Amino acid sequence: MSGHSTYEPKTGIERWLDARLPIIRLAKDTAIDFPTPKNLNYWWTFGGILAVCLVTQILTGVILAMHYVPNGDMAFNSVEHIMRDVNYGWMIRYIHANGASMFFLAVYIHMARGLYYGSYKAPREVLWLLGCIIYLLMMATAFMGYVLPWGQMSFAGAVVITNLFSALDQVIPGLGTAITTWLWGGFAVGGATLNRFFSLHYLLPFVIAGVVGLHIWALHVPGNNNPTGVDVKLKEDTVPFHPYYTVKDGFAIAAFFILFAWFVFFAPEALGHVDNQTPANPLVTPAHIVPEWYFLPFYAILRSVPQKLFGVLAMFGSIAMLFAVPWLDTSKVRSMRYRPTARIFLVFFVLATILLGWCGGKEPDDMVITMGHDANGDPTGFSVVWFSRILAIYYYAYFLLVLPLLGLTEKPLDVPTTISTPVLPKGGAALPAGATAAPEKKG
Amino acid sequence: MSMLRKSAFIRGAVLGLGLLAASLAPAAARTTQAELKQVPGGFSFEGPLGKFDQASLQRGYKVYAEVCSNCHSMNLMYYRNLCQPGGPFYHKEYPNPNDSPYCKAIAADIKVPDLDPDTGDPIQRSATPADHFRNPYPNEIAAAASNGGKAPPDLSVMARAREGGPQYIYSILSGYIDPPPGLTIPDGKYYNPYYPGDLGSMWSGPKAKTPVGGVILMPFQLVPGRVTFDDGAPSTTEQQAKDVVTFLAWTAEPKQEERKEAGFAVMIYLILFTGILYLSYRQIWRNVAH
Questions:
Q1: What ipTM describes this predicted complex?
Q2: What gap in Å lies between CA A72 and CA A415, rounded to an integer?
Q3: Do B157 and A91 touch (CB under 8 A)?
Q4: What integer is the mean pLDDT of B112-126?
Q5: Which of B9, B153, B284 sits opposite A313 (nearest CB)?
Q6: Other C-beta atoms lying within 10 Å of the C-beta of residue A275
Q7: A419, B136, B156, B232: which has the fewest Cβ within 10 Å?
Q8: Average pLDDT, chain B
Q9: B9 to chain A nearest CA, in Å?
Q10: Predicted TM-score of the model (pTM)
Q11: Quick check: A289 and A153 in contact, CB under 8 A?
Q12: In this structure, are residues A126 and A211 in contact, taking their beta carbons and an 8 Å threshold?
């Protein structure tokens, strides 16, 4: 679909460069002329929003690294120095800290959009896999970034997450301990851990940027999916990326920035945790250790399994499921716009994930529904840990049962023959003969 | 995941669930706390447009200097900060806080430890605006030894470091009450209903009626009249607490006013810019059915 290049170098220097490094041609073909389905809705703007999030994080992060000190005795105060004494340091730091949350908010919407419109299906499996890798890298980067201010929750988070690997002791005795010691750079989370996390936190965003390059390359081979899930068939199905989508994405990015700015300027610590305003102290463990909001669903899955190794496996498995989605979904119809049953299951999947996040922020013994009190006066009833279990089972069932089985049994609605059909009056332009037959098989 | 590992996973999960059901966790210690007090008149700095009341900041600094600073450090604050824009003693004639006579005078009254530049001997000298707030103890061990075994926490970011923030600190400082009959408070500790804790082990009455709150190492400080305000404000417990909390909210984030002012401008800009982009979008797409 990238099609024939229409770039014609007009000046001598452009012709000279085009024969040696056709970079202007690349830019024109991919960012200006690129034929893009004309029916993309606002859910599709989150790709552009995410690109802006990444650039924002890298720019603010590079500036923060000029002032931050990755040392156990100085890290906390250096962050406060940024907030107090660096010109606009408070703004740069709040953009970076809230930017992580905005990045995850956007990526979750982007992923949900992919799940709803079947953007992972052939021929976009590699595109989807690269997205999953970006998401994993984002999680690693965000986790290590949260450790850097070296507050109480930073420290506790580093201890909890690195200790997940000690579960491997239950597979091969000593293996988990060896890995955690290696991760820590010592026998406990300490200055060496902080320093290496800083190094990796600076490295990984550039790895993400590289994989994003591959992600966009893999996007530009088959071209965008679209809300109908129907392939582009006619020239009228598409518009050039510029100015049509530069302006639409631009509008969405600006609107997203209003939300972003509201957090940065009026609620900069609403998404953080007060315990992280106390410098890390290995001798005092916070009463309630909770990760950042974007990890809460996985934290709930981890805690829902009482045995450590299987809890860790369940948590990593919940992310691993995403990698398998292109091969778990058996439906020939891409877009759930034409899969009414699948749509209901997906809505419940999103709901289950959000509720898992709610569970992750509660204590496992808290009650969802209180039914009475025991001898000690403590409430009894339906607890958060049991609620998490039910939700986690649904989470897994969506991937392992619903996607494979539903595609074989459901009756999808009629799929339009072309992208233009649903929007043009009376079925739109005349079609070549045969184009209407079994369109769902033409994916 | 291979078939083999999957079945092992399921078996393990079932086993794990069984184990948990068998040992349904006994209730952990329950932390309780009274509902935080309402601040009379509210804080000046609340809300997206709130600003620090400079008179309250000045009174609050006096409470800190005469009461809090006897035991608590404030290592992130420097005397120059008091005279920077937005600070309690900022004056527009002295844009450089290090040159401000107010800060020079405040610092000059305070002795800080240093080394004699000629002999290297430890000495005490007058502070300058560039010094950080004097630490009442030479080190953390000394601070703990003088305060029942635990060093009083540094107050620099205290207003951001507790659930409830300024309202919580206000409730603690002004919320000391006598322990109800049946509650035995250990020597050297004090009952405060707003301090999160579990009083079960000190309570002799029925378990269900255990008082809320906890025991705190800091005794009640802000007795009426403790600090005499230069501007004639009444020196009630509530007034002293409100002013010192205003000061603590400022030290926790001295750039808060700057942040809100910038945010206001950014919001206006972004909303206009988004509107223009929306109109551009409508214009460019006007002939495309989609």
A1: 0.89
A2: 59
A3: no
A4: 95
A5: B9
A6: 21
A7: B232
A8: 90
A9: 7
A10: 0.91
A11: yes
A12: no
